[in-house]
Write a structure and sequence with these properties.
It is an enzyme of class 2 (transferase). It comes from Dactylosporangium cerinum. GO terms for molecular function: acyltransferase activity. The protein is α+β, with helices and mostly antiparallel strands. It has a single domain, classed as Aminopeptidase (3-Layer(aba) Sandwich). The protein is built from 5 helices and 8 strands; from the N terminus they run E-E-H-H-E-E-E-H-E-H-E-E-H. An 8-stranded mixed β-sheet has the order 1-2-3-4-5-6-8-7, sandwiched between helices. Helix 1 packs across helix 2 and helix 4 packs antiparallel against helix 5. The longest helix is centred in the N-terminal third of the chain and has 16 residues.
Length: 205
């Protein structure tokens, strides 16, 4: 399958059910930092459940309703990004992401998500790209800002996690707004991600 080079030895590739063992090893390293932001991190705890997570996205891809991609750094799976939802007929999609500590501070998520936005808008004709994250996940909202997204508002107490209901910020980017998508990519990108990590935040949406 295809491989998209990112930078510094990193690659973006499809993440599929046959890679469940590798995905599980990655989840074991990432779970503590990713679980608060990505619900399926806490349920992918053995080979069967890891396979089920990947199979769910494979089924979405077969229906053209979602897709899952991993980010490999020097040959090791360290994170990924996905179309949580994809509706070509309506011209809308939602993008999410996650990253284990070994991949942080390199701008990998911003680079990878830009590739997904470019494909969604310019190849598939998507008009509106959404990004959702908890307000306390400041590293994720910082990525949305670097991508040029607009903060549309907040869904109050819509996301339950371990008995507590959390707000979700809604960010969006419209097709006509992607022309300057590379304008914000600079040394500030890495600095912004590092700041989020030092505050204890995982770059996940």
């Amino acid at each position: 399958m295809f491989t998209v080079p990112l930078a510094g030895g990193a690659e973006l590739r499809p993440l599929e059910p046959w890679q469940a063992a590798e995905f599980l090893e990655h989840m074991d390293r990432a779970r503590a930092t990713v679980d608060p932001w990505i619900p399926w991190a806490g349920v992918s705890t053995d080979l069967d459940t890891a396979t089920a997570t990947l199979q769910r996205y494979a089924d979405l891809a077969a229906r053209d309703a979602g897709r899952l991609f991993g980010i490999w750094l020097d040959g090791t799976l360290v994170g990924g990004t996905m179309f949580v939802a994809f509706n070509a007929e309506a011209g809308t999609c939602e993008i999410g992401c996650w990253l284990e500590p070994a991949g942080q501070g390199r701008g990998l998520i911003t680079m990878a998500v830009r590739r997904l936005i470019d494909w969604a808008v310019h190849t598939r004709g998507i008009h509106r790209v959404e990004w959702r994250c908890r307000p306390d996940n400041t590293a994720s909202s910082a990525v949305a800002r670097r991508l040029g997204m607009h903060r549309d508002g907040v869904l109050r107490e819509v996301a339950p996690y371990r008995g507590v209901r959390h707000d979700l910020e809604i960010w969006s980017l419209l097709a006509g707004e992607t022309a300057d998508e590379s304008a914000g990519e600079s040394a500030d990108e890495s600095a912004g991600e590092t700041a989020g990590e030092s505050a204890g935040e995982s770059i996940a949406s």
